[in-house]
Design goal:
Blueprint (H helix, E strand, L loop, with lengths): L1 E10 L2 E11 L4 E5 L6 H8 L7 E6 L2 E2 L5 H6 E4 L11 H11 L4 H14 L15 H12 L6 E5 L7 H18 L2 E6 L2 H7 L2 E6 L2 E7 H6 L4 E7 L5 H9 L5 E4 L3 E7 L5 H10 L6 E5 L3 H9 L6
Parallel strand pairs: 3-8, 3-9, 6-7, 7-8
Antiparallel strand pairs: 1-2, 1-4, 4-5, 9-10, 11-13, 11-14, 12-13
The structure holds adenosine-5'-triphosphate.
Keywords: ATP-binding, Nucleotide-binding, Transport
InterPro entries: AAA+_ATPase, ABC_transporter-like_ATP-bd, ABC_transporter-like_CS, DrrA1/2-like_C, P-loop_NTPase
Organism: Ornithinibacillus halotolerans
């Protein structure tokens, strides 16, 4: 088991991470969710001994790894946010190059390269130079590099940022498959709550350096069990209608989208007739009014008053 104990990083006067406590059990997919600047990258950089903590500890099997990270490094594959590949080499050559850094040679190296190419779905593109790859293919190869030394655990720093939906799904499915077939432990950081919701057994939510929620999906959603989310849809949302919602004492929070307003209300409040009345008063035609199952986004909104992706 890996444990982060009161892990803290201060840059001058600012806490990038403050008293972070987390644990990751073998075989789990754990999500670290938070908006840009929450402290996710700093946290995982401390976990993988790339950044020295200001205070606190990281323990692997109950032993601190801060002073002697080598045993932990052997079992961990780090997938950085930035693509770290040689653009002028082919996919295969990149894997061969990084494999040699891990002391792989000869038949062992070519077998591993074949296996990794298969796992990331790039076997048929192995001879193509990386410069010609799409963003999603580069990200997949980046993941492949982290898997060359057969790690037991992958630490992935926002691995789907800026790629097409198809590649994104491929990466998510690959993570699920590695976990199911090889019991790979995964720490997955993201600011996309749908990804974390889809992938993870347990979730930690960070904001501004602080841990603001932790638990299973169900436990985290319990945080807002006293409230429910109602989605109101209309082709045209009138400003006066939104203002009336915001001023309504029954409604705790109003979030405005393009053709949808989401409101948080006490669980037992019956707001349907109220919403329809407000729409009529403001001359607005509604497409639908529905109760929604709360998402992690709703939890984040409830805890911070802000959307996860501003
Ligand atoms: N080397 C550094 N020097 C000074 N401040 C830093 C440094 N690295 C990070 N920070 C600050 O620490 C805070 C947390 O940054 P961090 O990159 O860990 O967040 P994040 O959640 O990973 O967000 P992102 O997705 O944007 O990388 C930010 O306010 C950032 O500006």
């Amino acid at each position: 088991m890996i444990e982060l104990i009161d892990l803290t990083k201060k840059f001058k006067q600012n806490f990038a991470v403050k008293n972070l406590n987390m644990f990751i059990e073998k075989g789990e997919i754990v999500g670290l969710l938070g908006p840009n600047g929450a402290g996710k990258s700093t946290a995982i950089s401390m976990l993988s001994s790339l950044v020295e903590p200001t205070s606190g500890d990281v323990q692997f099997e109950n032993k601190s790894i801060l002073k002697n990270p080598s045993s932990f490094r052997k079992i961990v594959g780090m997938v950085p946010q930035e693509i770290a590949l040689y653009e002028d080499l082919t996919a295969e050559e990149n894997l061969q190059f990084f494999g040699r850094i891990y002391q792989l040679r000869g038949k062992k190296l070519s077998k591993k390269v074949d296996e990794v190419l298969e796992q990331i779905g790039l076997t048929d593109r192995r001879k193509d130079i990386v410069k010609k790859f799409s963003g999603g293919m580069k990200r997949r190869l980046n993941i492949g590099v982290a898997m060359l030394h057969d790690p037991e655990m992958l630490i992935m720093d926002e691995p789907t940022v800026g790629i097409d939906p198809q590649s994104r799904n491929y990466i998510l499915d690959t993570v699920k498959r590695l976990n199911a077939e090889r019991q790979m432990t995964v720490l997955y950081t993201s600011h996309y709550m749908e990804e974390v919701e889809f992938l993870c057994d347990r979730i930690y939510i960070m904001d501004k350096g602080n841990l603001i929620a932790a638990g299973t999906k169900e436990e985290i959603k319990q945080i807002i069990s006293s409230e429910k989310t109602v989605s109101i849809k209309a082709e045209i949302l009138k400003h006066d209608f939104i203002q009336a919602l915001e001023e309504n004492p029954l409604i705790n929070r109003v979030t405005v989208g393009e053709k949808e307003v989401t409101i948080l209300v006490p669980k037992d409040a019956n707001v349907f007739s109220e919403v329809i009345k407000l729409a009529e008063t403001n001359g607005m035609e509604l497409t639908s009014v529905d109760n929604k199952t709360p998402t992690l986004e709703d939890v984040f909104l409830h805890l911070t008053g802000r959307a996860l992706r501003d």
